Amino acid sequence: MMKTKSGDFVLPGDALGVTEEFIPSEWTYEDEGKIRSLVAGKVSVDNKNKKISIIPKTSSPSIIRNGVVVVGQVSDVRGQRALIKLDSIKDNSRGLVTSFSGGIHISQAQKGYVAKLTDAFRIGDLIEAKVTKIMGIDNVDLTTAEDELGVLKAMCTKCRHYMKQTNKNEVECPNCGNKERRNLSSKYEG
Known about the structure:
It is a single chain. Helices cover 0% and strands 42% of the residues. By secondary structure, it is mainly β.
């Protein structure tokens, strides 16, 4: 049975229906068989095509979807996964409609083998990554395994200054001389 109908106002995370009845469409995601809203807005039910979507309350906000390149900051690096707070969509001046968190699995950090994820990212680094899967507002899978993706600005783990690039995957702090490895974007800004 449908929980919501067209025109209902919903908030991020609100249940809209079930995947047995509808296909999640714009601004929605699937969560264990339930369709939930990614953003605050009005429900739009397309009974003919069995789709359910949201019309965001803000006009044309930045849309996070598979294949979109996002800019964010590394908030934690734990074992096999780097956690990223997403700030914006590349080349889009509008902010995101809600605050999204993402993760980069060690297998998606760069082309080839990565022994330690801390050789690719550190807390505070600004990165550019591509969305590969959206499972909710706090669970967006990302990849940086393309030349133009990766760290745009690396932060020194010793003194927190931004670092200069010294070669393909190495940076050096102009403040304290510390050298570190990173998965640097071909557009590194240091």
